[in-house]
Amino acid sequence: MILTKNLVSDLRDVPREWVFEYYLNLKERLVGQDIKMLSAFNSKDKVPSMCIYTDAMSGFYKFKDFSSGNQGDSIELVKALFNLSSRGHATIKIINDYQEFLLHNDAPITLEFKFHDKFKVVDFEMRHWNTQDSKFWTSFSISSTLLAKYSVVPLAYFTMEKREEDGSITSFKFNKPYLYGYFRQDGELYKIYMPKNLDKKFIKVQNYVQGIDQLTYEPKYLVITSSLKDLMCFNKLGIGNVECIAPDSENTMIGEAVMGKLSKRYFKTIVLFDNDKPGIKAAQRYQDKYGLNYVVLEMSKDLSDSVKDHGIEAVRDKLLPLLKQAL
Known about the structure:
Layout: H1 16-23, E1 35-37, E2 50-54, E3 61-65, E4 71-72, H2 74-81, H3 87-104, E5 120-126, H4 131-138, H5 144-149, E6 152-163, E7 169-174, E8 180-183, E9 189-193, E10 202-204, E11 221-225, H6 228-235, E12 242-245, H7 256-265, E13 268-272, H8 277-290, E14 293-295, H9 303-310, H10 312-326
Parallel strand pairs: 11-12, 11-13, 13-14
Antiparallel strand pairs: 1-2, 2-3, 3-4, 5-6, 6-7, 6-8, 8-9, 9-10
Helix pairs in contact: 1-2, 2-3, 9-10
């Protein structure tokens, strides 16, 4: 006799939260809260570097592992955990494992899902540039003209708020020196940069491919740098026939739709990230996914620090042959 009670034939029959709970051996049910844990991909991880969170756009759980750079939805989690070759193979595994789970356990009880508010930037105030700002940015050879071109503006303060489960509002105001707002060309704030705050240098406000508004599509080549600061430093090197963009961070992949459009506008795209292990891993992901060559500048940790420590001419002399070789 064939039992059909627990027959599962479609991924839609599998609770999305169950995938994370089961494969990550979570000790608590996911009901809308965010979780930070040790990396499931790096056994040497000593400090929690993997986040399980609800995506603001879809409302579904996703993960981001800063140790390995892996990120995505429940299917991407299983694909990465078991080194599967496609999302289709991961989907089949999830369905089969869930069916096996149901043979020995009752179906998971659906719990009330509550969206937990996160701290969000709700207010800020711009201020004038001062000598302190000038000293910081010019140490990287970044001029006021470049800062204006890429809409970098000093901030007097910014305020963040979060609504608690009881309805109360928790807020704080940050008004220390060295605060900078990164703005889109339409005036929307997308990131806050706090270079002197060692615990958290960036606060992401919205998704944005940095430098994309400034592209002219006239040069032949495109370079993807790791940050807006590196992007601006590249502009100072005087290397012709090249434009630059930067993702939100090295751990955030530029999406396929954007990369597809850019591939039609440029003859070649090269990745230039930090020369540490995470930076090289991030560059390799672009190579694996999009077939892009990458270069490793073995000077200081990143391009902007290299300019600061060694000067524009030394960096250009070192980097230019690497770029030519990658082409």
